[in-house]
What we know:
Oligomer: single chain
Mean pLDDT: 97
Low-confidence stretches: none
Number of domains: 1
Order of helices and strands: EEHEHEEEEEHEHHEEEE
Largest sheet: 7 strands, mixed
Helix content: 10-25%
Strand content: 25-35%
CATH topology: Purple Acid Phosphatase, chain A, domain 2
CATH architecture: 4-Layer Sandwich
CATH superfamily: Metallo-dependent phosphatases
Amino acid sequence: MSKIFVTGDTHGEIDIKKLSSENFQIGNYLTKNDYVVILGDFALPFSNEENKEERYWLDWLSNKKWTTLVVDGNHENFDRLNSNTTTKMFGNDVGVIAKDIFHLKRGKVYNIAGEKIFVMGGASSIDKSRRIQGVSWWPEEVPSYKEFNDAFSELYRFNWNVDYVFSHTSPLSVLKSMFTEIYNDPTSQGLENIAENLFFKEWFFGHFHEEKRYIQLDKFRGTFHCLYESIVQI
């Protein structure tokens, strides 16, 4: 039976080594029918033109035993990410990043290993004032009104009932439960609107470089998990 593992941000070559054979030892025994999901800020590729270092790490990941699935974060090159070829997998559209590395699209529900999984990438960068638009920051990092509207339409198709949610940031209420001060991110408000209506078992997100499991709020029907370095099997 296929397995699904979930982990937080990798930031290109910076944190991708957590998926090495030494750190993720169970990965040595997986197959291409098993999946490792990166919850945003994959950042491969990130430069506007392909370079040897990015190619090396994409090939390194492609050669792993498993298939890698990527949720987009805020630190992505959206010009390149959104120009990738699209194919059908898990009952919906995915972007082809490289061999055995696929981009799970915003607002889609996928059937992965028998589980219904809703995906909503994106978030607002707190450091965008220090970045350059089109070089190290892209406004597409924040989901558009249309993308959230399409997500609502998709969830109506599934009667607002899924098994898991994969996102980059969290709903606003979860964010407030984690931090005393929060950054105004319209993505979190959009996710709040979704979470208030959604039936789900567990919701996994990254973004905050924090490890916090089993966040439960009375207003929501499922449990939330913030991941960074850990690799969790669902």
